[in-house]
């Protein structure tokens, strides 16, 4: 059994896998890391291997704690992957994006696939039917857009995510909700349409913390999944263990 660890900008997410089946998942802040890992060790004593993906700063003693408990793979840009990476600067490519593409290769082999990860940033990553990763794009996520309106203006308030009541906002708060949410929906729909014009049989995956909120409001046909990143990390671990 495998322990998959994804250290994000805000939260750490973990999953316990029996081969490709996820048995347990959790999301928590780094301060609770060792306590959560101890719980996993107690409740899932069959876990022998772990994989760590980090886009944040993970403390060295925490990494050593994992290494002392499991056979551990720490993912970097040199790790073996089940696809051809055509990104021009692979050393700058986020580990989370590598994992998402790996999940796409594993679950949608031989298909042109666009993975949209709606989190702190919204990332778009594309692999073709030849299992070549071509790259994608990075845009501000929902919360970043709300925060930027507050940070870079004198009087606009910082709001929580909320679906706008109408297209036309009749108050400052409603205008912000309309601008942020409608802007993101039009962006995502437009990006999908542009890809579909080039790759007509495109498969689209939507994942990340804001995927559920967005999926109900997007007009395009998509697969929405909350576990895609963890599944990709689990597949990277299995791929490297089988080499």
What descriptive keywords fit this protein?
7 helices; five-stranded mixed sheet; alpha/beta
Present the secondary structure layout:
Elements: E1 2-7, E2 12-18, E3 21-28, H1 33-43, E4 49-54, H2 60-69, E5 71-74, E6 84-85, H3 95-107, E7 113-118, E8 121-127, E9 132-140, H4 142-151, H5 172-198, E10 203-207, H6 211-215, E11 223-224, H7 228-241
Parallel strand pairs: 1-4, 4-5, 6-9, 7-10, 10-11
Antiparallel strand pairs: 1-2, 2-3, 7-8, 8-9
Helix pairs in contact: 1-2, 3-7, 4-5
Distance from first to last alpha carbon: 17 Å
Mean pLDDT: 93
Query: What proportion of the residues is helical, as a percent range?
Result: 25-40%
For the biggest sheet, the summary is:
6 strands, mixed
Q: How many beta-strand elements?
A: 11
Number of helices: 7
Q: Shape, please?
A: globular
Strand content: 25-35%
- What would you call the quaternary organization? single chain
What is the SS-derived class?
Answer: alpha/beta
Could you describe the 3D structure shown?
With 243 residues, the chain is α/β, with parallel strands linked by helices. 37% of the residues lie in helices and 26% in strands. The protein has helices spanning 33-43, 60-69, 95-107, 142-151, 172-198, 211-215, 228-241; strands spanning 2-7, 12-18, 21-28, 49-54, 71-74, 84-85, 113-118, 121-127, 132-140, 203-207, 223-224. A six-stranded mixed beta sheet has the order 6-9-8-7-10-11, sandwiched between helices. A five-stranded mixed beta sheet has the order 3-2-1-4-5, sandwiched between helices. A hairpin with a 4-residue loop joins strand 8 and strand 9 (132-140).
């Amino acid at each position: 059994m495998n322990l998959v660890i994804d250290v994000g900008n805000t939260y750490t997410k973990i999953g316990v896998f029996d081969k490709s089946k996820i048995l347990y998942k959790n999301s928590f802040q780094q301060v609770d890391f060792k306590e959560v890992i101890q719980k996993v060790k107690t409740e899932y004593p069959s876990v022998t291997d772990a994989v760590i993906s980090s886009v944040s700063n993970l403390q060295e003693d925490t990494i050593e704690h994992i290494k002392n408990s499991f056979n551990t793979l720490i993912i970097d840009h040199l790790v073996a992957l089940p696809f051809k990476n055509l990104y021009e600067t692979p050393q700058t490519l986020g580990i989370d994006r590598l994992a998402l593409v790996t999940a796409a290769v594993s679950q949608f082999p031989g298909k042109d696939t666009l993975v949209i990860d709606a989190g702190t940033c919204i990332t778009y990553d594309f692999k073709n039917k030849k299992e070549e990763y071509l790259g994608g794009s990075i845009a501000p996520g929902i919360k970043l857009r709300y925060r930027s309106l507050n940070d870079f203006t004198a009087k606009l308030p910082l709001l929580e995510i909320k679906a706008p009541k109408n297209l036309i906002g009749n108050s400052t708060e409603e205008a912000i909700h309309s601008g942020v949410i409608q802007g993101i929906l039009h962006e995502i729909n437009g990006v999908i349409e542009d890809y579909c014009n080039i790759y007509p049989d495109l498969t689209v995956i939507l994942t990340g913390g804001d995927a559920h909120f967005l999926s109900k409001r997007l007009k395009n046909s998509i697969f929405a999944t909350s576990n895609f990143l963890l599944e990709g990390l689990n597949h990277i671990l299995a791929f490297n263990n089988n080499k």
